[in-house]
Amino acid sequence: MSAEPIMEPVMTHVDPIDLLSAIEEAAPMPTRPEYVEGMAIVPSTPNDNHNDGAFELSFQFRSAGFRLVGMGNGYRAAHKDGRTMALLIPDFYIRRRRPTELDESYRKAHKGWYPIDMVALVGEVTSTNHETDTGPKFRTYAAAGMETAPFLDADI
Fold first, then answer.
1. How far apart (Å, rounded) are the C-alpha atoms in residues 150 and 65?
2. Distance between CA 39 and CA 117 in Å, rounded?
3. Burial of 48 by CB count in 10 Å (0-12 exposed, 13-18 middle, 19+ buried)?
4. Virtual torsion, Cα 84, 124, 62, 117, nearest 10 deg
5. pLDDT (tens digit, 9 = 90+) per residue, 36-92?
6. Are 143 and 85 in contact (CB under 8 A)?
7. CA nearest 58: which of 106, 112, 124?
8. Residue 40 to residue 33: CA distance in whole angstroms
């Protein structure tokens, strides 16, 4: 990606899912905001090099026998009391399982966000937003109990 993401601390009682929906509706172009460490993050639109890198890595994992590799789904991490801790969209991931009926019900109840416990490993293709992808996002992934794989490409 060629630009830094927009990151703003969120001091509100609005559910983070509703906050991100409002950001998407207000944006002049399609966007996929995330919520990490109390901040709404609006990453710049991925370019072709970024998407090609994420797809290539996904393809390599799938070719190596990891059948549950994917891209594009959003995942919700929750605090023990059920409040939303984070809303993340990894560049690619390896799931622990295919979505069950319960997972699909969860996704509907949380406006398109799957439960994060479905995911075993996440990967972020990063360049100019390296600090965001390897700082707050990786800390959140670790808190949710998953492995992370940063992939740096300075040409993206």
1. 20
2. 21
3. exposed
4. -20
5. 999 998 887 788 888 898 899 999 999 999 999 999 999 999 998 999 999 999 999
6. yes
7. 124
8. 7
